[in-house]
Write a structure and sequence with these properties.
367 residues; mainly alpha; hpI Integrase, Chain A; 2 domains; 3-stranded antiparallel sheet; two-stranded antiparallel ribbon; elongated
Length: 367
């Protein structure tokens, strides 16, 4: 006989959660938990293949989420099933910084459990947790980091990426070769490739994406969400409204280099040439007319690294992490917090990694 308080052999609701809720909330929460546990066991590990997690893993993740829900109810002062990415960030950060000094494996399981929950919810925006947890040595500052010379090399590579010779400077044979290449690149018949396509290949979309991301530490989701009205060319800034800002509830004004503002100005001039932007205020779209994502930006960064001679795998977050690290070093944590749009300075503290030597030099300068 099956146990009504269990699904797939896993307890649907802890006694602590039961005692927190009223009768109606208990029924709603138990139904929600039943769906989540079934999903974990039957398809959570690989939904496309209908492959679930092992029973012990499902049990751990179910427990993680039960505790996460109770924490959210306590923080918010009310019962809800609509938990946010920002709450997950805060919850995990609190666990990392807690005096209890939780083990690395426990923190790692919390992070994976939270990730599984947002996949179960099928959120349109993937939860992109910035806290790196190692099973060997706990929460650490990000290793996925562009060094200063690499930042410069990536900037320069963005000016080279995808460029082609001038249409009018090519002889007929060379022009045919490049027309064939651009036809494949833009999905056009070779006969339809002309000077406009050559100019498009040498446009400023990629330099504007890369330079803006290096300056503002744009997350992948922010590159995808970026709108034309974010761009303030006169003041060389991005102004991100609260309702479009990732992981916080504040309006943000983010400083840009004048060089970056120039590339954005050129892109804003060029952008109306392409039909796919006619009915959207998206600042950038992929060549398949989609907003940029982690995967499409990873592909772009891989190409830039190849041009720049950077021979190691990096994610788009390497750009953001480097912006935070060097802003904190050149200015202070407050400047890094503002530039990276962190609601809490605790999130920014991971970028406070000035070396002992640099601190000694600072003491020498201070006298």
């Amino acid at each position: 006989m099956s146990d009504p308080d269990k699904v797939e052999g896993i307890v649907t609701m802890s006694a602590e959660s039961h005692d927190t809720l009223n009768n109606r909330q208990v029924i709603a929460y138990k139904a929600h938990r039943s769906q989540y546990i079934k999903w974990l066991c039957r398809m959570g590990n690989a939904p496309d293949k209908l492959e679930g997690y092992a029973h012990d893993t499902s049990k751990v993740y179910a427990s993680v989420l039960d505790k996460f829900h109770r924490w959210a109810w306590e923080q918010g002062g009310e019962y809800t099933l609509d938990l946010t990415h920002q709450e997950a960030d805060t919850y995990l950060r609190n666990m990392v910084l807690a005096d209890n000094e939780y083990s690395d494996s426990y923190l790692h399981n919390i992070k994976l459990g939270l990730k599984s929950y947002f996949r179960f919810r099928d959120d349109a925006d993937e939860w992109e947790c910035e806290i790196t947890i190692s099973s060997d040595s706990g929460a650490k500052q990000p290793k996925d980091l562009l060094h200063q010379d690499e930042r410069k090399a990536i900037r320069e590579a963005s000016l080279e990426f995808g460029t082609v010779p001038s249409y009018h400077a090519l002889d007929p044979e060379g022009r045919e070769k490049w027309k064939k290449y651009l036809g494949r690149r833009f999905g056009k018949a070779m006969r339809d490739v002309g000077p406009t396509e050559f100019e498009r290949a040498n446009g400023f979309k990629y330099p504007s994406i890369v330079h803006a991301s290096l300056d503002a530490g744009l997350r992948p989701i922010e590159v995808g969400r970026a709108k034309t009205y974010w761009v303030d060319l006169d003041n060389a800034a991005l102004r991100i409204p609260a309702d479009e800002s990732s992981k916080n509830e504040d309006n943000w004004s983010v400083s840009l280099r004048r060089e970056t503002a120039e590339y954005l100005a050129r892109w804003m001039e060029e952008r109306p040439m392409y039909e796919k932007y006619d009915d959207t205020d998206s600042l950038w779209l992929t060549r398949h007319d989609n907003p940029y994502s982690s995967s499409s930006l990873k592909y772009l960064l891989d190409q830039l690294c190849e041009i720049a001679g950077i021979e190691r795998g990096l994610s788009w977050y390497a750009i953001r992490h480097s912006t935070g690290t060097y802003m904190a070093r050149e200015e202070d944590l407050a400047a890094a917090q503002s530039q990276l749009r962190h609601k809490s300075v605790e999130t920014t503290m991971k970028y406070d990694n000035v070396s002992i030597e640099d601190r000694r030099d600072a003491l020498d300068r201070m006298g």
